[in-house]
Amino acid sequence: MGSDWFRRYGQAPQDGPRLVCFPHAGGAASAFVPLSRTLGAAVDVVAVQYPGRQDRHQEPPVDDIARLADRLAEEMSALDDQRPFAFFGHSMGAVLAYETARRLEQRSAPGPERLFLSGRGAPAAAPSPHDQVRTDAHVLAAIRRLGGTTGGVFQDPDLLAMVMPALRADYRAIGTYAWTPGAPLNVPFTVLIGDNDPVVTVEEASDWRGFSAARTDLRVFSGGHFYLDHHTREVADLVAEALGVVTVVP
């Protein structure tokens, strides 16, 4: 795709919008394969591949949200083919999608037509206590609480050794992130949350309304932090409707 930062798991449609997806802490671009397949040829789904995981595992991970957002704002130029686009970020990815959109707006560069912000409360001046994990044991406890990694990873020392550098960096990034005050984005938001999320309440998710000068819609799904795993079809339909397209995969 002309950039180490993006992965496409299907064929790009000739026209139609693009959805740039930002994974959660410890996650990789492949987390969005199910959503990409469900949207089919209606949307060009492109997922961000952070350094330090999967095919970029030999690169040092980045442990700072601002640095990640700065770089991704630059890398968006690699995808600039005049196609309209939106951002979809889950958990840490929601913060990164928002901060990348802020940077694009500050640069007067083409920006997303909508932000889909999933599994994350609105930014605050101080990091969330849930993000304050300082040891590997705390990181693993946080992952178990969220239910985002299969138990086999915890039991396999080799697999654990492979994923820990990225997990440490991501939790350091989100654990040190503090919102810098600024004007609301002139972009509509769609906020998505599970009704049984162990670290984000529906009320905290609804606080994103104060960060957009445009319309903000809130959608609540049954499930926990990774509700998307069980509601891919519904989320795909929601995305397609918001972007004005029709999904073609049953």
From TrEMBL:
Pfam families per record: Thioesterase
Domain Thioesterase TesA-like: 20-243
SMART domains: PKS_TE (SM00824)
Key words, A-Z: Hydrolase
MF terms in GO: hydrolase activity
SUPFAM superfamilies noted in UniProt: alpha/beta-Hydrolases
Family, per entry: Belongs to the thioesterase family.
Protein name: Alpha/beta fold hydrolase
